[in-house]
Specification:
alpha+beta, 4-stranded mixed sheet, 15 helices, 446 residues, homotetramer, flat, two-stranded antiparallel ribbon
Chain lengths: 446, 446, 446, 446
């Protein structure tokens, strides 16, 4: 018979030679006895490869279809396919999803790792004082001190946000002029401009302002690159808010003409913008980055959600508008307001400020709410599973960083042990000393 | 002993002969030494097959049950079962779900691929000018120009839809007669018929009308088959809307008798139907097709959802009606309105326009909302997973198209290389030049 | 060395003998050369078994832990463990979930199959006329005629339900006495008792009544067992409703004393109970049974949902009650009404009939709605996955029925072919003729 | 060639020696012919190990990457890696998730088992009377009597909770003084303090009080450790409630001065705190513990949910506040109330007590409701899957307890059979007699 014996790492396969010739561009298609892999004694070819994918590869030669084994990691498959010079695109479509799932997981891990690991490992003992100070202020995981600092900082952020919220409560404010005591009658804007905050809350706010100003100046002073400092949105927000507050406070204590007074009023009304400092809260959780990754990875699902919802909302709003066209009630008085009702119905929020009142409207409402649940469930499922992909691969990304760190230490150890001429030894691993910060300024920068 | 040695691609199996005779219709049941597969030297039968399914097949002979290995693709299993002449229906029910999952995924990929791939590959360099124009207008992925055209088109669609929505806002409309200035008192229909749109918005609408008319005429002119043109719903919608608008505009500028005036009024009121052009938005996303596939594939789940919900809704509505039968409030004044309340409760929309007011009604409300969540969660889970099946198999469908495209190029290359007598060579692949449009009119058609 | 060679269907294993003695009660623990499985030539034991589980079994002897391979069906594992006399309970807990998943799936399939397959296969050609009539009326899948009958029946059911709903609309009813024309002022019960339905709708209802009476009588006549007839809830419902309707109709046409008149009024008011005929809709979908199975299988999850929700609802209601204790508003006037609010909030229905109005109430509301989503999401996930288990195993259950049917035909064929002395042949399979009805009365019964 | 033959339990592998030297610290990297595993006859190394992971390990030597087979339990992998002295951290990140999933499942099972299994197995026949009484009162699974006791206890708990709810209904209460008959006008607190419960409900409550007092005293008497008794929250709750009730009842029957009267009134108003006895309901379901485990395991997801929601809520509330700043309506009168609206919208509760009324507000509402669904869906998915992990591994934990119990019995049996000199025998297993209670006091303690 024309069979060929192939020994892959001790596992022996037999296949007809004629079959192998069907893909002449591949390695097995060009098999010849002149190769060093040929062992004339045993009349077999010996390859030092993983034999797990061989049966699938032989099936490709036999049937022209490449179905993959499900118990082998896609990267092993890839390595073997590359070795045997078989194009990835020959993989059957039924196995494609399984094959790419692992590759995608890898890509996800890459993204996570990159975000966790933008800089080389640092040896904690080699940092300068300035670097230490910078890292204490920026990285809670740097030391005990930085953890305490972070907690204090978060307390101030929480306080300033709560105060900003309280600023908008009319009962806590005092009218600028006595004749404006009945603020409730006007609009909210009126109230904000014609009254001001006084007493303990105001003084607490000033204390927070001082704290954030000092923090901002310190950070700016020790920041190695001033340009880079302004490339972060949060820093710009801090600077803007601090300037507004200080201007308002300064205007408080100098005699002013009428014109500036208005500006002053506006500035003081903007005190409640302090609420935006809530964004600093995002620093507290590593997982916040996952949310952003998920949203990026789910852009196509988002697009789908938006396009589908827009279409459905507009159509249902038109239907509801015309269904209610004969009723006197001014609930569905125009299509935009019907769009508002449709969104409120499809998301199952259902305020009830607008309700259908005719039978035709009821029917539209029923269809609208049911199809809303359906339409939203589909992309949400994808986004939730994307999030899960990031969330469940966090440990894998950490594992890779650990592996890299280990390798670095290992390399150093090997170097040491070879230098000392003692040969490889099993030394205890110390990974605590090494870690990867998100940003370490070099001493030159500082 | 009566054992038989079977060598499947180098893997050796031993089994009692008496066991094999239990299924005499199968290949192994008819095993005889006269076959060419018999190798007398080694006293074994050699088969050039995938040995992965053999252990399961031998188990079938031994125990009468066919349990499949979980790490082998169902299509490989199918191929082997066919070769050994074993009926698919002998597969044990516990492995049936796993076995059919892959087959179903294949069917899903088939459906997606068919929709993406209705026509043969085209070589972009061989198209005529008319074909180029047609494809520029229809396929955003055709060229840079077609992408720009698509963006402009979508902008106009968005604009015309927004204008149509604004048409229904009474504040933006002017009464046709001065005595109708108090429109708010009548119904919406009254308002629509007794007032008209004027000014900038109206002129913008006319601009859009001109744009869509020109676009429609151009498309109709270059369309190869006029009949086919009208087989698309969107084209018919465009034609109808354009005709209505133009009739209304023409009637604006010619002196008319009273009768036509009413028709004119009605026509102008229909300007807000332009909102239906939103359907063009569906062209923007390839994923829209997935939604339609999902809905088709989920028909049984839909049926279940509808039947279950209908039953539950009617029963709960009757219960709520009789629970509230003694209250004076006219909230649950009849069963149909109670049905409306039940749907609003089961979908957790909860407008609050109708609320139970007696203890019996509260109990019905509690049971109704809880069972609503349950009843809806079950079919929704199926529909969401159906959608996921389509969504996650998109890349697999694209992979198959790529494979086919590759094969076409490969075949052409092989032809070339054999013709030139140079033997098979590894030439660089260029897949960019080839692609599959959804519809390419032949030049004869044009 | 003290190694033992074991040949399992051609796959050779080597293991130390001392290791095998650790579990002396098992088959391998009692291995002796006196057994017929011992082959002295090759110095090995030959077993005609599936070798896939052997490595795991050897690991049990080596390490004392039994971890299972993931690519082998649990039933194959079970068969092998039984053969080697290893107790199922030795399986490690980390593999237990995987091991039992398949066993559970089998149990699910058993339940589905039992419900689909309560009776032996029938050969359609052997039924009597009476059996044919019975099956035509009961099983839509019996023949074309039965499908038409089923459609007509469903139309009548829908009609009678819609009419029953319309019965409760006051505008369609006429007052029994002229002085009761202002029905809106009283309660719904008053309205129902003091007015009646007349005109077309009433006549349509009578037509439906006649139809259902005839249908009921026919079914009762041809029903083989009269007792069994009344063991079905739907039949009892039909009988009761029909009797009520007919009594009311008869009382309409005979002169009656005042006392009976009241009974008559009540009876006529009960016409809207016809809405309960909606339960017949459940017959239309095979999948309805799945819902019932799911609910049965999810009893523990239900219990959890109920207990958790009850506890959470009572606690939150108490909190909300005391949070609002100082407000004058009578919204949270007692704990039971606060319980209603809590359920409405936790299920995210949110009618808005009761709303917290103090800051403490807002805080309770926020915590309540968030924890409601969490608490409900957890058991719902289990119930949805239980439903999925039934839904996705439907085809497997059908596969088993098909296999059984195939086996029956096969047995018959084998009998025939052996009788004719022709030996086993591959005859075409005809499964259409055979099918399993849910209930076939024997001719003796009829 | 420099190949090495390695025989792992009968499976033969061949690999180049030079490749093995890449990891000199591992077992295979130090392979030498002096080892007892070397068999010079066959020129191979024999290892009595599981060969399933060998191919992956060889791949590590060849490519430097360690990809795991998917069909082998992670614990088998771990055992093999340990034997071959390969560090776990070398596992590739793409296989890390799969590898750790099983380890995590094991950890989950550990947690469940620990909670189910805090004490050694007890032999039911060896308990003293006091122990029997204690266990009858505490463990429903102890005996038939304890089940009946448990049912009665739960009935009393339900009754006392229902009565506590009824206590807050003004209609059922009587005013303390006749002049307070118009209670509805004041606040709820007023109503509670100025009225009291009388009649049947009050007497039923007293009966419950007697029951719970007797139960508490009995439990306290037979409790072995009095300190431990007060370490359970529920016991403390019972003691406090019972003391409050009895003080109030005693004050009822002794003549009192005005001052005590007020305390008495307050105490009687606290009768409705009996509602907290609902916590005893948690004892009824074993699955309640799962909820607590899930919440503990989901702390990071919770943190994410809280931080994200807080940020989103504050930002959206600020947006909504400023969107509605120009409207006169006092719906969005300050940011805290806007925060309430945002939470109600994002959780899709949608009471409708506060609604946006301007176009800007509508836009904020639309974005807010859609992003609310998204934001909540993501962590909820994780928490639901955590719950599923606990729920689906319950049987595995029970399996482990069963295994331990079996081993105990087996050990005892082996001891017996060896003692009797009869050698190992297959005796019938009796597991019923042994079981693990959550707490068994020793007789010394009692």
């Amino acid at each position: 018979m024309d069979t060929v014996n192939i020994n892959v790492s001790g596992k022996k396969f037999t296949i007809r030679k004629s079959v192998l010739l069907r893909f002449p561009q591949t390695k097995l298609g060009r098999l010849t006895e002149k190769w060093p892999e040929y062992n004339p004694e045993e009349n077999e070819y010996f390859f030092d490869r993983n034999p797990k994918v061989m049966l699938s590869i032989f099936d490709l030669y036999r049937t022209g279809e490449l179905h993959l084994p499900k118990n082998v990691c896609s990267f092993t498959v890839k390595t073997e396919l590359d070795f045997w010079q078989i194009d990835e695109s020959l993989i059957s479509e039924c196995c494609w999803k399984m094959y790419t799932t692992t590759l995608k997981a890898k890509a996800v891990i890459d993204v996570i790792e990159k975000s966790l690991n933008e800089h080389p490992f640092v040896n904690r003992e080699e940092l300068s004082t300035r670097q230490h100070l910078w890292m204490t202020m920026e990285f809670p995981q740097h030391s005990i001190v930085s953890k305490i600092w972070f907690t204090i900082y978060m307390l101030f952020v929480s306080m300033v946000v709560i105060i900003a919220c309280l600023y908008t409560i009319p009962q806590l404010r005092e009218p600028l002029r006595k004749e404006d005591s009945h603020l409730a009658s006007g609009s909210i804007l009126d109230m904000l401009l014609k009254s001001e905050m006084k007493g303990t809350i105001y003084r607490l706010d000033l204390a927070c302002l001082v704290f954030f100003t000092v923090e901002l100046l310190t950070k700016f002073t020790i920041c190695p690159e001033k340009k880079r400092f302004f490339s972060f949105g949060l820093n710009n927000l801090d600077v803007t808010l601090t300037l507004i507050m200080w201007t308002a406070v300064v205007l408080d204590h100098i005699p002013i003409v009428e014109h500036v007074h208005i500006a002053h009023t506006v500035l003081r009304a903007m005190f409640c913008l302090n609420v935006l400092r809530i964004f600093h809260l995002g620093k507290s959780s590593n997982v916040m980055k996952l949310l952003i990754f998920t949203l990026k990875a789910s852009l196509s699902a988002f697009g789908l959600l938006l396009v589908t919802l827009t279409m459905a909302v507009v159509i249902y709003a038109t239907l509801a508008y015309f269904a209610e066209v004969a009723t006197k009630a001014d609930t569905f008085s125009n299509i935009p307001i019907a769009i508002w009702w449709t969104v409120v119905t499809m998301t199952t929020v259902g305020y009830g400020d607008i309700c259908p009142q005719s039978w035709a409207g009821y029917v539209v409402g029923v269809i609208c709410s049911l199809s809303g649940i359906l339409l939203i469930a589909m992309p949400i499922a994808i986004i939730a599973s994307n999030f899960d992909a990031f969330y469940s691969n966090m440990p894998a990304a950490e594992q890779r960083i650990r592996r890299k760190c280990l390798k670095e230490i290992e390399d150093e150890r090997l170097k040491l042990s070879y230098n000392s001429g003692a040969g490889p030894q099993t030394l205890p691993l110390k990974t605590d000393q090494y870690y990867q910060p998100t940003y370490v300024p070099t001493d030159d920068e500082l």
